[in-house]
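Hi support team,

I've been running sequence recovery on a batch of backbones for a student project. Most finish fine, but this one hangs at about 90% for roughly twenty minutes before it completes. I'm not sure whether the input is malformed or the queue is just slow. I've pasted the structure tokens below so you can try to reproduce it. Let me know if you need the job ID as well.

Thanks,
M.K.
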């Protein structure tokens, strides 16, 4: 296995008090330095935009019970520069970059410019791993001005967003390959009858101005969101410093983007094991040949880590302490999300966690993951302090990895 570190960089209460933002940003850098020293491969950081607290005043608050901020990283390029300046081996990843709200041209230009500066030192080989998609919360895209342009679009907005992601992703990927292109070079976005689902809504979209696809009764056209003249990114950058990851579960989009470049798959949500395996099987056939054969580490997977290796405690007491912390953190999360606790959701979340003493965690990793998987370890989830995160990262490297090494080749990098 390969092991990375995942950071949410959320601002949540600690003993009823919200830590200040500067403290949390500093703790993130401390975690990056330690991850580098311990040999982890990549620091993946969640992206978030605009204040959840301010959004509570909207007509449709998405997280009315959340105390604090869901994340403090609106720009992975700024964060990556700070991390790279303090580390020697660690790579950085976005989890995940919203390319739809701000727009794919702006997003691509930001990445390109960062990599141009990052690669000026020819001895630099650490990559920026860019996971990208349309963003989790639609209020972010609305804040950027991305809203329906007609009653028909408003009625089908949840489906339209999928078509916009394909349009944005093609622009983003192709520009970052150094292509010179205009909007006319990008496939017009469409929606299939199956994707729309509702027959009446599909018919309404077809009869809307520009909605019909000539000679095709099974698709409707979606008006382009990004119209632009022929252009190319400057300054250029060394392409070996960039790796792209599509944050989508849509097989058709995963395959489509691999027409243009080696685009891997970012998997964050709880996904059924059979869906994981089907994705690997499919990507073997569609992964762009410039990336070589498809490998399991090309779809990293996230897991919560609740680990206790306190030498003053027995193994049983370590396990109990870790389980108590896991229940407290996951309970706090779901109450913050929903205002109440659904035991079924708590159980589902627990199934995406490794919990216990070092021997427990090593056994659970071995049981749940393929030996060739790449696993993003989520240490900072609702933790009481930055010191706790550093302690668990160290315990994992010093007490969990050696146990795994006894049975199979496992490495942090």
């Amino acid at each position: 296995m390969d092991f990375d570190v995942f950071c949410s960089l959320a601002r949540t209460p600690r003993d009823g008090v919200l830590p200040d933002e500067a403290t949390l940003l500093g703790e993130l850098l401390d975690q990056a330095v330690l991850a580098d020293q311990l040999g982890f491969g990549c620091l993946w950081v969640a992206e978030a935009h605009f204040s959840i607290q301010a959004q509570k005043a909207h007509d449709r608050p998405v997280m009315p019970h959340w105390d604090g901020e869901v994340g403090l990283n609106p720009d992975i390029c700024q964060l990556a520069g700070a991390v790279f300046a303090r580390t020697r081996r660690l790579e950085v990843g976005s989890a995940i970059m919203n390319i739809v709200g701000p727009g794919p041209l702006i997003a691509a230009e930001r990445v390109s410019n960062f990599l141009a500066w990052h690669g000026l030192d020819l001895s630099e080989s650490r990559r920026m791993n860019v996971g990208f998609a349309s963003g989790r919360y639609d209020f972010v895209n609305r804040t950027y001005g991305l809203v329906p342009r007609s009653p028909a679009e408003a009625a089908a907005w949840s489906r339209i967003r999928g078509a916009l992601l394909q349009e944005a992703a093609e622009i983003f990927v192709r520009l970052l390959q150094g292509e010179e292109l205009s909007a006319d070079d990008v496939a017009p976005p469409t929606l299939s009858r199956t994707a729309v689902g509702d027959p009446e809504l599909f018919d309404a979209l077809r009869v809307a101005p520009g909605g019909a696809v000539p000679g095709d009764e099974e698709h409707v056209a979606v008006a382009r969101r990004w119209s632009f003249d022929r252009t190319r990114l400057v300054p250029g950058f060394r392409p070996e410093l960039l790796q792209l990851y599509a944050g989508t579960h849509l097989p058709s989009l995963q395959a489509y983007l691999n027409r243009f470049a080696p685009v891997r798959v970012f998997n964050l949500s709880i996904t059924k094991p059979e869906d994981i395996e089907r994705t690997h099987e499919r990507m073997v056939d569609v992964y762009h040949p410039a990336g070589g054969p498809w490998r399991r580490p090309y779809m990293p997977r996230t897991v919560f880590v609740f680990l206790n290796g306190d030498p003053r405690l027995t193994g049983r007491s370590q396990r109990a302490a870790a389980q108590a912390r896991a229940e407290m953190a996951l309970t706090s999360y779901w109450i913050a999300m929903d205002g109440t606790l659904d035991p079924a959701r708590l159980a589902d979340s627990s199934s995406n966690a490794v919990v216990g003493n070092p021997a427990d965690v090593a056994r659970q990793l071995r049981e749940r993951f393929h030996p060739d998987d790449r696993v993003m370890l989520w240490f900072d989830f609702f933790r009481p302090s930055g010191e706790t995160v550093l302690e668990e990262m160290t315990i994992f490297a010093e007490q969990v990895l050696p146990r795994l090494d006894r049975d199979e080749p496992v490495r942090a990098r």
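--
Follow-up from support: It reproduced on our side and the slowdown came from queue contention, not your input. The chain has 15 helices and twelve strands. No action needed from you.
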